[in-house]
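Readers of this paper often ask what the protein records in our data store actually look like. Below, we set out a record of this kind in full and without editing:
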Amino acid sequence: PAEEALLAAQAAGEAPERLTESAAGILERWPESEAARRVLRALEAQSARTRREALFDRAEVALGAGDLSEARRLLREGQALGGDRTALRQGIEAAEAEASERAEGEAVAAVVLALEEPAAEVRRAALLQHLTLKPPLRARVREQVSLPCLAWLEEAAQAGPQPALVEAILALERAQAAF
């Protein structure tokens, strides 16, 4: 009778707290009660779904606010509870890709701007910064700035971003300008 009352209460949509209390009471008295265990498993699953959906909702809010790291963290927490929101995951990935592209564009623009400066120290710093860029970004810089030293630097860049390399390239550039 206690199990039947529990199952009827579950079917009627009884509050989860009361169902948990009733199921725990039944298990205390009849530890072998499969019905009470089934109700508790269903309650745990519903609780996990509710927590997961709340995490996904919070992730969407964070994504909308531009807080990508928080959105990614909340998405991972929700996924750990056994679910996924494909559109949310794709939105975060797209926003991260956009942020990465924007940062790369800003890095290229900063190097281009600095390379256009006549001051030797600024150009030296710009050439060193150019060497730290990934090869596709260095190519974008070379597309925007026509300096022979960039081609020389690219050829020698296999050695890595070394200040001595930049000094040598600047010396070559000065020598070429002198002729």
About this structure: The first helix runs from residue 2 to 11. The chain has a mean pLDDT of 88.
